[in-house]
Write a structure and sequence with these properties.
8 helices, about 40% helix, about 15% strand, about 270 residues, alpha/beta, seven-stranded mixed sheet, globular
């Protein structure tokens, strides 16, 4: 599907998530995300210790359901069931480089996820279109049509969004992400992490979990520990596409034990 052409009914996105982010003042460009003051301050204050119940609650609330539902059932696990290859459509080399670092970081921190950037759109199953803010609404219209674009615009004031289509087995076949480039580094990174991660499956935003970036009231700008738990649970091989809540609950205890060990090791947690 071309990012500039409306999807046909057969290729229509099953789900859509929107991040209505508040603009923050522009920050001088940094070579690494961790050098941004807005990110450093959040990392210092980040909560890193969670009970099993807190982790499971956030996982179930984000992995099931959908913030903006276009078509298809949302009561099953949705995830890629194979390698994820990301293509960026942009003429901004700086933003593409930042996006590549985000993708690499996600790949490092999610144990059973094979994700990487790729140079050809045809071989990609995640396409990221980077646009100027003034072109965002036009791009949304090209993706979803005028009627749904109007609904999106009146419901939220998004600076970034993502959606995916899945097959009958609830395997994600393709995701599209739209990011704006003419924003602060913090806002760009915050959007990139949230939308790329949600394009992998946990597409339901929730205001009831205060530690996740999948909460419109939370801005992170990096891949926080709590969301690493969510993505590692989702991409554990024992959590399969199409599983119901009851089926997931039956395997979560043993999966969570292994996920805790991985997240502790990759983040050098002391607990």
């Amino acid at each position: 599907m071309s990012a500039l052409n409306p999807p046909s009914p057969a290729l229509r996105f099953a789900l859509l998530t929107l991040a209505a982010l508040t603009c923050v003042p522009n920050i001088a460009p940094m070579t690494a995300a961790g050098e941004l003051p807005a990110i450093v301050s959040r990392q210092r204050a980040e909560k890193k210790s969670f009970t099993d119940a807190e982790i499971v609650d956030g996982f179930l609330k984000t992995a099931f359901g959908a913030e903006y539902h276009l078509a298809g059932r949302v009561d099953r696990i949705r995830k890629f069931d194979g390698p994820v290859r990301v293509f960026a459509e942009t003429d901004r080399a700086d933003r593409k480089a930042q996006l590549a670092k985000v993708v690499a970081d996600i790949g490092t921190r999610v144990q059973h996820l094979d994700i990487a950037m790729i140079d050809t759109a045809e071989a990609a199953n995640v396409r990221v279109k980077l646009v100027r803010d003034r072109d965002l609404y036009r791009t949304i219209t090209s993706f979803y049509g005028a009627e749904k674009a109007r609904d999106i615009r009146t419901s939220l004031d998004p600076q970034c969004l993502s959606g995916f289509r899945k097959n009958d087995n609830f395997e994600i076949e393709h995701s599209d992400v739209i990011l704006t480039v003419d924003v602060s580094d913090f806002t760009f990174l915050d959007c990139a992490y949230e939308e790329l991660l949600q394009a992998l499956g946990p597409i339901n935003d929730t205001a009831s979990v205060p530690w996740t970036m999948f909460n419109d009231n939370v801005s992170m700008g990096y891949f926080d520990v709590y969301d690493q738990y969510i993505l590692n649970l989702l991409y554990d091989p024992r959590i399969k596409p199409g599983m119901t809540v009851l089926e997931v609950r039956s395997v979560l205890p043993e999966v969570l034990t292994d996920v805790r060990a991985w997240v502790k090791r990759v983040n050098d947690l002391k607990e």
